[in-house]
Q: What sequence folds into this?
């Protein structure tokens, strides 16, 4: 059984090695083809007249700049979309802050103090009665608003 296991592992490794060699051969062939194309293009450019050579160089530069321009436009669109998203989030948060400030301004100081005392009591009760909350019926909308925010 041990020899069979070793033989199976050796065959697996041999198969993986052969697949890797095949992949590397394919990669070398592709690189060879690319090199031949580049050599042919280079030879053709050497045979061009000086005017045609300048024209070829300009065409290459135009192509490079066009591709760079497209990449920059894509990046700009992405950044503009992100900016809109962040502005929308900022408006939402500003609205929440304003709502909170208004709610704090409308609640008289002694009610806020009473509410703080009640919150302390609730925290103590949570230890004894998890999930239970004591509140006055008239404070229900305020409680719900605080739970949501």
A:
């Amino acid at each position: 059984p041990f020899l069979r296991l070793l033989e199976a592992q050796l065959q697996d490794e041999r198969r993986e090695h052969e697949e890797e060699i095949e992949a590397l051969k394919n990669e070398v062939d592709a690189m060879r083809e690319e090199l031949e194309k580049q050599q042919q293009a280079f030879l053709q450019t050497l045979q061009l007249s000086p005017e045609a050579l300048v024209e070829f160089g300009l065409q290459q530069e135009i192509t490079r700049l066009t591709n760079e321009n497209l990449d920059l436009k894509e990046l700009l669109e992405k950044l503009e979309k992100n900016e809109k998203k962040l502005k929308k989030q900022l408006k939402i948060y500003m609205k929440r802050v304003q709502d909170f400030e208004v709610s704090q301004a409308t609640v008289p100081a002694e009610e806020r103090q009473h509410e703080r005392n009640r919150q302390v009591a609730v925290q103590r009760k949570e230890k004894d009665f998890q999930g239970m909350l004591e509140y006055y019926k008239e404070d229900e909308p305020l409680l719900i608003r605080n739970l949501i925010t």
User: Anything to note?
Assistant: The first helix runs from residue 2 to 47.
